[in-house]
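To: structure subgroup
Subject: Chain for Friday's discussion

All,

I'm putting the inputs and outputs inline so they're searchable in the archive.
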Amino acid sequence: MKVLLSIKPEYVRKIFAGTKKYEYRKSIFTKHVDKVVVYATKPMGMIVGEFSVEEVLVEEPEILWKETHEVSGISKDFFDQYFEGRQKGYALKVSSPQLYDEPIDPFKLFTSFIPPQSFKYIDTETEEKNFNFGF
């Protein structure tokens, strides 16, 4: 299954440059997800690529940081602010990032597109036929 994730452009660049190997989340999927489709938030506002999820780490934030910080692509301060007050955090291990040749305007794919706050499952059978995602 695939999900659509909203990610800030500065982190999108690091993912596709290969310097950010983990994408952190406060909540995680309930279904098995093997691919993430990346929506770069405003000012880009486009679907720009995808990556495979090699594994999902679930740990207390301090342990998560110790295991992933060298290839996190973020600062310790940002990490601490993001997970403040959380007992558990999630890290998606990024594998095989693929930047699309041309970004995709999500408003052309979805009749009423709203960027996901955390994630949106993509029903590939239905949406590939209707919108020709090409992935």
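Points worth raising on Friday:
The mean pLDDT is 91.
The chain is about 25% helix and 35% strand.

D.
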